[in-house]
Design brief:
The complex is a heterodimer.
Chain A (H helix, E strand, L loop, with lengths): L3 H21 L3 H25 L1 E2 L2 E2 L1 H32 L13
Antiparallel strand pairs in A: 1-2
Helix pairs in contact in A: 1-2, 2-3
Chain B lengths: L1 H21 L4 H25 L3 E10 L2 E10 L1 H24 L6 H20 L3 H19 L6 H32 L4 H10 L5 H18 L8 H4 L5 H10 L4 H13 L6 H4 L2 H22 L5 H21 L3 H28 L12 H4 L1 H15 L5 H15 L3 H26 L6 H4 L6 H16 L3 H7 L13 H21 L11 H7 L4 H50 L4 H21 L2
Helix pairs in contact in B: 1-2, 1-4, 2-3, 2-4, 3-4, 3-10, 3-15, 3-21, 4-5, 5-6, 6-8, 7-11, 8-11, 8-13, 10-15, 11-14, 11-15, 13-14, 13-19, 14-15, 14-18, 14-19, 15-17, 15-18, 15-21, 17-19, 17-21, 18-19, 18-23, 19-23
The chains are: A mainly alpha, B mainly alpha.
Chain lengths: 105, 615
């Protein structure tokens, strides 16, 4: 079985990929997907810690239960987020974040 | 007794409030109510005077720990009683006269409201038992005087005169206030009746300090009683309605300064003969000389005025100078006695001039009158009686009181002041007879004077009543009972005062007859010396220059301060700072979603750094 460090490395990698996508990509849907990627990376970390944190020979399941909650909330969040994107597209005819600068001070 | 006093004080205020709040549109009723309240005041005062009680009452108004409270109180003694009678007596007659004089005025209610307010304030001064209360009423008479001078405020001259009176008085009142506080510093009390004993209780007080305090308090009297160099407002105040001039600017308010000084000096010591031991020499001398100089300057200016009211105004100035001189000679009795007689005959003269102005359709130039003796016999006769009393012709009231002032100057050995007083007496006779000869004798010199008619009974009655007082108020049977302070007349045919006053009248009368007996125009008008008199020694012009110079420099400084400090640094600085910060933070709001994400990420890193690596 892989060690905790390997799990954390993969998780960090996924998180970095997600963060890079959020920062660098222009398409708002891709940004959104990268956001989900970062969430998944965080969930992976939780599961890994849960697995390697033994209590009386058993993993600490609190972390894994927590991940279920994250997945649930993320599903709801995706529904809201996609709805916003659809509404945005209807209003602006664009999903390019560089064109969405009406909040400039 | 007490309730009568409070009623006398409060009734005019109630009347003024009633007129102002309820009777603005019912003008004739307002006039009647005001006159009625003045009549009630006079009757109550007569009641008080006939009882002749001395009374002092009041209640604490302000109490501060460790310091005796300021009272609202009434001090009724012979001084207050006599002055009260002058105020309510002349006041009532002026109300009566005003009913006729002002009957066509469009703002009758405002006028009578002002008169009632004035009566309230003046009675307050008379009855006040301490300096603070007196000062409040002092300011109130200033206000009502301002309102009444500016009654015809549509005229620029009237509005300006009202302003001038108010501002000039402000200068004096400032000194008054300082003086009151200084006196409190010495004696520790504001109350008149306590002054003497408190001063005695502190024998180590600085004489110089007391002298300065007296002079500061006198500054208030200088403003109100129009003493040089603050005299400039009184002649201009003649822009007000003539009855107002009679009441406020001749008989009562302008005399308030003299009254206040008399009240002050009489409360400094129980025995007036000791006054010179308490009042320092330099302050009494200053007061006497200011009075003397004022009376001389004003008398000289009066000789070349053509406006009937202006002549009377300068004569008032001159007589006030007399009274102040008497106060300065530490003889407040003589000053108050002259105030008493002067109030009646000067009110008479002003009301007489009012009757003339009324009949001549607001003509005030005496050279356009003439011959009024035939058309207005009652007015002429009463005016003549007033003139005689003012000149100090023997057996009139003015003679007795003037004599006392001359006598006290002689008694103190102040021969320079004595000379000035005698010269002024001579000048007084000269200019008053000039006025009488030109306006009332000879032939009428204008259409308006030709058509003059005798005034109605409502105007004639006050004239007759005042004429009786002008004749009789100097005698002991009347003046001795009701004058604020009375000195019986002693006949010394060889005394310098007697000789001086008789010869002054004779010389003045002779000169006036010689020059103006049949004059059609002023024979002295072209002489350069008399031009200076006519132009009031150019004092007004000098003040105008001085004030404009002062104000220009102050205004320039204020402008600089305003532009640079207020506008540039404070107001402008704040807006610039807010603007700059706004621009700075606005730059952070790029509107770029990913920019926010980067910043957010950096923020998270910073928080992690701070919490993990620094704690």
């Amino acid at each position: 079985m892989a060690s905790l460090n390997e799990f954390l490395f993969v998780s960090g990698l996924v998180f970095a990929i997600g963060l890079a996508g959020v920062i660098l990509r222009r398409n708002i849907i891709v940004i959104f997907m990268c956001l989900e990627l970062m969430l998944a990376a965080a969930s992976l970390t939780l599961v890994a810690f849960s697995r390697f944190h033994l209590k009386d020979g058993l993993p600490d399941y609190n972390g894994q239960v927590f991940v279920f909650f994250i997945i649930t909330v993320a599903a709801a969040e995706v529904a809201v987020g996609l709805a916003i994107i659809v509404a945005l597209y209807r209003a602006r005819q664009t999903i390019n974040v560089e064109d969405l600068t009406s909040m400039r001070g | 007794m007490e309730s009568i006093l409070w009623l006398i004080l409060g009734l005019p205020l109630l009347t003024a409030a009633l007129i102002h709040l309820g009777l603005k549109r019912k003008q004739p009723i307002a006039a009647l109510v005001s006159t009625l309240s003045a009549a009630v005041g006079l009757i109550l005062t007569l009641l008080l005077v006939s009882k002749g009680e001395t009374l002092s009452l009041g209640f604490d108004w302000v109490n501060i720990a460790g310091f005796k409270g300021i009272q609202i109180g009434i001090e009724l003694d012979s001084l207050a009683r006599g002055m009260l009678l002058i105020v309510t007596g002349v006041g009532f007659l002026v109300h009566l006269f005003s009913l006729a004089y002002m009957k066509d005025d469009s703002a009758l209610a405002r006028y009578f409201c002002g008169l009632s307010l004035f009566m309230f304030s003046m009675i307050g001064i008379v009855l006040a038992s301490n300096f603070i209360m007196m000062f409040m009423f002092w300011e109130l008479v200033g206000l009502s005087s301002y309102l009444l001078i500016g009654h015809w405020y549509q005229k620029d001259t009237a509005a300006d005169a009202a302003k001038k009176a108010f501002l000039t008085n402000r200068i004096g009142d400032f000194g008054f206030m300082i003086g009151i506080l200084m006196l409190w510093g010495i004696a520790g009390t504001f109350t008149f009746s306590e002054l003497a004993s408190y001063l005695v209780a502190r024998p180590d007080h600085s004489v110089f300090f007391l002298g300065v305090a007296i002079l500061c308090i006198f500054a208030g009297a200088m403003g109100k009683s129009a003493q040089a160099p603050l005299h400039v407002w009184l002649p201009d105040a003649m822009e007000g309605p003539t009855p107002v001039s009679a009441l406020i600017h001749a008989a009562t308010m302008v005399a308030a300064g003299v009254f206040m000084m008399a009240r002050f000096f009489t409360s400094l010591t129980p025995d007036l003969a000791d006054l010179h031991l308490i009042v320092p020499e330099f302050s009494s001398q200053t007061i006497a000389w200011i009075g003397g100089i004022t009376s001389l300057l004003a008398a000289l200016m009066a000789t070349q005025q053509d406006d009937i009211k202006k002549i009377l105004a300068y004569s008032t100035l001159s007589q006030l100078g007399y009274m102040v001189m008497a106060v300065g000679l530490l003889d407040p009795e003589a000053g108050m006695f002259h105030l008493f007689t002067h109030a009646w005959f000067k009110a008479l003269l002003f009301l007489g001039s009012g009757a003339v102005i009324f009949s001549c359709h607001h003509e005030q130039n005496i050279w356009k009158m003439g011959g009024l003796k035939k058309t207005m016999p009652v007015t002429s006769l009463t005016f003549l009686l007033g003139t005689l009393a003012l000149c100090g012709v023997p057996f009139t009231s003015g003679f007795f009181s003037k004599e006392h002032i001359l006598e006290s100057a002689a008694h103190r050995g102040q021969w320079a002041l004595f000379g000035i007083a005698a010269l002024v007496a001579c000048l007084t006779t000269f200019y008053m007879l000039r006025l009488f000869f030109v306006a009332f004798l000879g032939d009428s010199r204008s259409e308006k004077a030709n058509h003059a008619k005798e005034v109605g009974p409502l105007m004639a009655l006050p004239l007759i009543a005042l004429a009786a007082m002008a004749l009789l108020s100097g005698y002991e049977f009347l003046g001795g009972k009701i004058s604020p302070l009375y000195k019986p007349f002693e006949f010394h045919p060889a005394a310098p005062a007697f000789i001086a006053s008789i010869s002054a009248v004779l010389i003045g009368a002779f000169l006036a007859y010689k020059l103006y007996g049949n004059a059609k125009e002023d024979p002295l008008a072209e002489k350069s010396l008399f031009k200076i008199f006519r132009n009031k020694f150019y004092i007004d012009e000098a003040y105008a220059k001085l004030i404009s110079y002062d104000q220009d420099s102050v205004a320039a400084f204020v402008h600089f301060f305003d532009e640079l400090i207020i506008n540039g640094l404070i107001v402008g600085g704040f807006t610039r700072a807010a603007d700059g910060f706004g621009r700075l933070f606005g730059r952070l709001q790029s509107g770029n979603l990913q920019g926010y994400a980067v910043l957010f990420g950096l923020g998270v890193l910073l928080v992690i750094y701070l919490t993990v690596f620094l704690s």
